[in-house]
Specification:
The structure is a single chain. With 750 residues, this protein is of the alpha+beta class. The chain folds into 4 domains: 279 residues, 4-Layer Sandwich (Deoxyribonuclease I, Chain A), CATH 3.60.10; 227 residues, Rossmann fold (3-Layer(aba) Sandwich), CATH 3.40.50; 82 residues, Immunoglobulins (Immunoglobulin-like, Sandwich), CATH 2.60.40; 84 residues, Immunoglobulins (Immunoglobulin-like). It has 14 helices and 36 strands. Strands 5, 6, 7, 8, 9, 12 and 13 form a 7-stranded mixed β-sheet that branches. Helix 10 packs parallel to helix 12 and helix 12 runs parallel beside helix 13.
Amino acid sequence: MRLRPLIVALLLAAAGGVVATPTATAAPAAASQASALAAGTQTLIAGQFNMAGGHPEHGFKGDVVADALAQDINRRVPQLGFLTINEGCLDWLERIEAQLPDTYTVRFDPIRSGSGQVANCKHESPFGNAIIYNTSVLVNPQPVAHDLGALEGSEKREMLCLRSVARMLVVCTAHLVASGENVEQRRREAAEVKRVLATDYSSYTVLLGGDLNDDPLSQATSNLYHSGYGGIPTQEAHGAFKEAFSPCRNEIKVNYLGSGGEQNWCRSGLATHGINKYDYLFVPPAAMVHSATVVSSPHSDHKQMWAELTIPSSIGPLLDSIMVVGDSISQGLEGDYTWRYRLAQHLKSAGRDVTFVGPYRGTTRLPNSQPANYPEESAPPYFNGVYRDGLTFDSDHFAQWGRQAHQAKDDMYSRVSQYQPTYLLVELGFNDLGWGVSDPDGLIADMRTLIANARAGRPSIRILVANVPQRTPLDVQPDLGTKISAYNAKLGPALQALNTTASPVRLVDFATGYNPYTDAYDGLHPNPQGEHKIANAFANVLWNQFQVGATYSTPSGTIPPLVPAAPGWMRAELTAAGIDLEWQHSFGAGGYWFYQRDATAGEAFKALPLQIPADSWGARWVIPGHTYEFYVVATRGDGQVSGPSPIASATVANQQTAAGPPNIVATPGPGYIDVRWDAATGPYSETVHTYVVYYLDNSEPGAIVSTKSTTGRSIRLSGLVSGHSYTVAVCSVNAAGEGLPAGGQSVTVG
């Protein structure tokens, strides 16, 4: 592949949140080098260069820059393994790639400015980091742009990494923040580089090049130098890497003796920018550095760095890789082991060397808060939830809470092209049927498209598609079970018709043995027992059909489901809209029952009709001068409930919401109700800008209150059931928020 399609892939990867943030710390990268070295070595040339595309002088030099670097690279092929680049310009890199042998490819990732727009070089071409690499060294690399946490409004700082699963080799380039006043930010960025390399790539041979904008004895670079290099007090090295340009070369030690007998630091590198600025090339301790040279370039204010290395290299057979694409059943909630973990452990114990791939790593978790207009808008998805017992494993995946096959089908080409999985394990469909996105035939059609798009990304991909499990009945969807049964009956024949020799497709039947009453927390999402059942279904198809792993063996005994702890604190704060509540996050909670009472009126505690899907909530519709009390109970599914949180209380004062509008009239028609009202009056009504209409189907047991908003003074509530009685109320929304409702009248739809 050439440069333009790869830029698109990088942009898609960055937009998809491919940055993984596990919280547990894996073994340092250096710990895996001995075993990697035993698998073989590879001698190559590696380089690092800042092209200075953002420099006021050098960034305007045009094609001569690209042509000069292309000549320098071609003098080093075919021995050149890779060259990491900072401050590159897209047009320069495209011109370079066109002059290189076909065995070399460029990966470019544009940097974003503080405004969020793609930054440009001084001659207005996109500006960013890149890696030029030999495709025989980095086989089918997966690009990931790791955000290093720039300050708000500042240029994005990142580390671009290419991971070759086939070679167990990772090449990264980092560009840290510059200028003296950003020392602390630069240190944080370097610490994030260290964390990502140690956690995301713990079992890989890792090489890192970059302009770190700091000297070798700084706190920033101490995050990367191997601890054997030492350092000045408070800045001792605590990283995992050897510096290829250290004057001590292959020895990792603190000092060496100069020609006059003086002590010199081994972490001293070679200046590449003036006399006191450095670029770096870090390699594993097991690597052997044969030579290292710095070459001046008239087209940049930095020098080129070139080193000949022998590195540990896993150059044996390509590893099989698995990408799980799924919904909440596959992503899991904070505190789950997940069936992905069960499958990974099973394959590991069976001695099958596979790797899991995908843009995400963690489970989901409840957010701190929902958006102000929830439930019309929900909090963004989380992918950093922690697994049960803080475990870590090869957890890369492409599963997201709430995901539908109707959505995922359009992502298959880009994701399969990016990660090149050998096996695609698909667990999707419940949300399509449960949310009314598709009927059974529509879902079958989407699965056909999903499979076709996956094959377009890798024609030889092997695809395992699970059917949809039944869940415990829902009053609001009495026909859901029938829809699921109809889809499952059609899925097997549909997959059989799509099966080919080049790209086999197999059905995974986990629905048959999955009991939503005993295998799930909430009638759907798996508990530990359910996780084993799903893993068992996928593992046995992998073994029976593809000879991957072994027959699944469910361990004896039971693993208790997770029971969330009671929040240790709860706080209440008065606002102009009412009372804002927040409480301590309960690990593994799927929601909270929210209890409140009007203590002034002598009410008993009553729970809201629906659980709160966040660690905070706003109590509205409260009466000025009244004291209210609150507490929450954390839940995990239907049966796992914590004790109550402490009680929080507040007396309403200075509330600035407006009363509901007067003269509300609800007029029913065939399948609809027309509602109209007059403008809100009274205190604070002058800032009313929106009205929210609430309506509830009184004739439907277990029905949920629905809402519609408008800036006008009338609305039609359509899609209603004829003959059913509905209660309608209207709230005014002003600058402070939503006030107490007015109306409450009931009408029967015609």
